[in-house]
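User:
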Amino acid sequence: MWDELVHRWLRVPYTLHVHADKRTKKPRATILFIHGIGNTGAAWDDVISGLPKDIRLITVDLLGFGDSKRPKWAIYNAKVQARSVIATFLKLRITEPVIIVGHSLGALVAVEFATKYPLLVRSLILCSPPFYKVNEEKRQMLPSGDEILRNIYRTAKKHPEQFIQISTLAAKLGLVNKSYNLTEENAHSYMAALESSIINQTSLLDATNLSMSTQIIYGRLDPVVVVDNLRSLSIINPNITLTGVLASHDVRGLFVPAVVKAIENTVNNA
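Assistant: Predicted structure:
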């Protein structure tokens, strides 16, 4: 009851569980990693193991996932998640601008955070961002990629038990990141995040106004990223660059060295 009063009605943001905070004396940069839907901060372990030791590395569990709070009443949109990220910033006493690396849902949260708190962001590295257009004006004879994916997500939301079974099989076959874990326990927050952050999003539009250097890395075999949206975005906003890798959606396999390289280049060129 007290928790709901403070966080729901008084709108005090939750702080996130810090999965890892690897510190070093006089770090060249501070990097905050934000995972995708259904994952935890552990999703970044392979990336972190390949980075230099003179960088401060922070991974968190988003609201609703891992060891962070998962209130039933919460709206798990990018705005709420970004407010929890800034609360965690204050808890960790981070004062300098950081490099934010976000994957999938985490990329959308990173865009929201950079839009609201640009002075705290040095640059962005967005992995597999599911940027979709908002309310397309003209309905074509054939549905767009954005519309097809939204319909798939809506179907998954209506049948969570079947989606859990599919996700469990994908995890057993090694088709997703090792930290991916969708169960009956966290299905509510998963579906709420799917609805409010991914299906009903404004992230693509928000990204057109990003003022900091932004790298987008996407898998050429990714079924949930609309590449045309990314290309259009890079044309509209000169601060955005694109890199395609021979990979799918998750940060695994060939995706990992691409992210490590992007981080190293960002740190070295600052």
